[in-house]
Specification:
Elements: E1 7-20, E2 23-36, E3 40-45, H1 51-58, E4 66-71, E5 74-75, H2 81-91, E6 92-95, H3 107-117, H4 123-133, H5 149-161, E7 167-171, H6 179-196, E8 199-203, H7 207-212, E9 215-220, E10 223-224
Parallel strand pairs: 3-8, 3-9, 6-7, 7-8
Antiparallel strand pairs: 1-2, 1-4, 4-5, 9-10
Bound molecules: adenosine-5'-triphosphate and magnesium ion.
């Protein structure tokens, strides 16, 4: 199978339960999907339908109770936390719904982190270029508390792509942005997808952004309700 047709991500019958005040609650039920390398893929659905949970499982941040997930050919359920962390460092960029910037580091230092973890030289220079791409050069010395929500989101996006990941997961990447900045950020994500073949997996409530993706699934109470298989899936 040629590399371009091998799925970058494959999930098969993935289920996840959590314990809540009323006992066990199944938040994902038998979710299956297949995302070819280089594709853009949207996960949509109402608040509480399980989108963030699914994104975390696909990125190897958490493990399913049952089911199988393969990221770039690696069966995530067979890896321990350390091996999954290594895979994430090498292959994955993640933009969290709540950004997860480190408060004691400036914007620039936050973006440098993934590069420093891989021992890259020129970390500062590359971080500056990434911040420039999201329009934040004037704010690079600011700490997260000194940035607006949308600015923090753009720092998080710069940090997610600065090390050139194979796949970028973004949870509501335009959720806190005005329309113009949101468009700019979307264009940036799709440029990464086009120019570097970075696979994009986006959670979004924005119908226009979902429509721009090659494929979409909709979650309803933890189940896939409308699979839109891509042509080559
Ligand atoms: N650790 C947890 N413990 C208990 N319940 C949880 C936990 N994490 C998530 N849930 C519940 O699981 C469901 C799915 O949550 P999730 O964050 O995946 O939804 P979402 O689709 O991302 O929603 P939103 O659009 O509001 O971000 C929700 O009902 C939530 O309350
Ligand atoms: Mg969410």
């Amino acid at each position: 199978m040629s590399d371009s047709f091998r799925p970058l991500l494959e999930a098969c019958d993935v289920s996840k339960s959590v314990s809540g005040p009323e006992g066990r609650l199944e938040i994902l039920s038998k979710v299956s999907l297949r995302i070819p390398q280089g594709e853009s893929f949207a996960i949509v659905g109402a608040s509480g339908s399980g989108k963030t949970t699914l994104l975390g499982l696909l990125a190897g941040l958490d493990t399913p109770d049952t089911g199988h997930i393969a990221l770039h050919g690696h069966a995530l359920e067979q890896l321990d936390e350390e091996a999954r962390a290594d895979l994430r460092r090498r292959l994955v960029g993640f933009v969290f719904q709540s950004f997860h910037l480190l408060p004691a580091l400036t914007a620039e230092e936050n973006v440098m982190l993934p590069l420093e973890l891989e021992g890259s030289s020129a970390a500062r220079q590359r971080a500056r270029e990434a911040l420039d791409a999201v329009g934040l050069t004037p704010r690079r010395r600011h700490y997260p508390a000194q940035l607006s929500g949308g600015e923090q989101q753009r720092v998080a996006i710069a940090r997610a792509f600065v090390h050139g990941p194979r796949v970028l997961f973004a949870d509501e990447p335009t959720g806190n942005l005005d329309q113009r900045t949101g468009h700019h950020v979307c264009d940036l994500l799709f440029a990464l997808n086009r120019d570097h073949r970075t696979t994009l997996v986006l959670v979004t409530h924005d119908a226009a952004l979902a429509a721009r993706c090659d494929s979409r699934i909709e979650l309803e109470e933890g189940r896939v309700v409308t699979p839109h298989a891509s042509e080559h899936a």
